Predict the structure.
Amino acid sequence: MSYVDRIIADVEKKNADQPEFLQAVKEVLESLRVVVDRDNVYEEVGLLERLVEPERIIQFRVPWIDDQNRVRVNRGFRVQFNSAIGPYKGGLRFHPSVNLGIIKFLGFEQIFKNSLTGLPIGGGKGGTDFDPKGKSDNEVMRFCQSFMTELARHIGPDTDVPAGDIGVGGREIGFLYGQYRRLTGEFTGVLTGKGLTWGGSLARTEATGYGLVYLVEEYLNSIGDSFKGKKVAVSGSGNVAIFATQKVHELGGKVVTMTDSNGYIHHSAGINLDTIKEIKLVKRGRLSEYATIHGDAVHTDAGSGKVWDAPCDIALPCATQNELDLADAKTLVQNGCKIVGEGANMPTTLEASLFLQENGIAFFPGKAANAGGVGTSALEMSQNSERLSWSFEEVDAMLKRIMTGIFHSIDDTSKEYGRAGDYILGANIAGFRKVAQAMLDQGII
Ligand code: NDP
């Protein structure tokens, strides 16, 4: 049995109840065969065994009191996966579906993503099964304060720097940061995604969505094309989806769909982003309201159809994991889609991503395509360290450099291994090499 097969079998045995984690590990290790099976050194130092095992897992109780004075208890997690190239860095997800396996999959992906940015950040991720939807601001504040009361002892500006993810935006980061400051008495860059008046970076809010579009744009430029006139299907209607849509529109493309967990809208005239921002960011409402405002848009309930049924040139899944399956991939190919760029983490199932690649679609995995968020978070850390703030234009220009750099790094790597255009392989190997070298240099730890 090859080294890679042995590790996959071992991970399957030990983590049988964590399907998302297994999926992420298999995808990465399959790509690494051509590297680790060629050189015994990795097996000799047990590098893969160490890579798939988090350095530390923290799980904790989060008690809080709701508006009816009832005691509620949620589960909190922080997985500190790998700090070989820098302090753990990765978001916090607040969603009822959160469990240890999901946080481990996200933390594992984060190792390679952070490496691809070229910046010195290790991989980590955290979250809770608390659902901020339908909660009052005061309930969210009490929850965040309780969550941070435990988390604070495990993080720090040079050890572990969390950020936002699904369900964690500016409001939650504010409450979390306030509690951290109160507990420690320190004003440091311990979280990213902070407000602009208290250490946040300009362009961080926009960074993941913008970065996704910058990467796809660089690919289009490399084949002598652009976003002009392209029809784009986007899923999600949160942070990543909104700012990806904004950048596509700026570059002359037209986004025609968006989703939330209740269904999707199709607006062939082009999504009106002002309406979306009002519904999702101001009112915290449901996407179905969009169709009552724009009569020519159609809302389809979840279960009655999927967003990927809408014909498009480019698909940008920006909601959640495994939202694009094999049947969806077949529909996209049939409808003439040419590019899929993952704004979300692992939104495409393994079979679907392979089918897309086999059918000539340029497929950009999330660990490359959505790395602009964490890249800009690292820029926020740099600004906090030097106690300066850079202009929007400066940060945006660096973000663009990071994303074009990632495109060329994964493109070059795919060519180096004789698999031109296999960006899954390119991203996994390019991300792995830097981390592996650091682990080799630092001994068996
Ligand atoms: P938000 O919470 O702002 O938005 C999430 C969107 O996805 C909402 O429209 C939400 O709908 C929808 N969604 C979430 N869970 C589900 C589900 N189980 N089924 C259907 N729809 C769902 O999150 P972000 O935009 O920040 O994150 C989106 C994705 O991007 C995630 O995979 C995240 O890990 C990834 N990502 C985010 C980064 C960032 O900087 N924010 C950085 C890199 C990756 P509803 O409103 O109904 O819940």
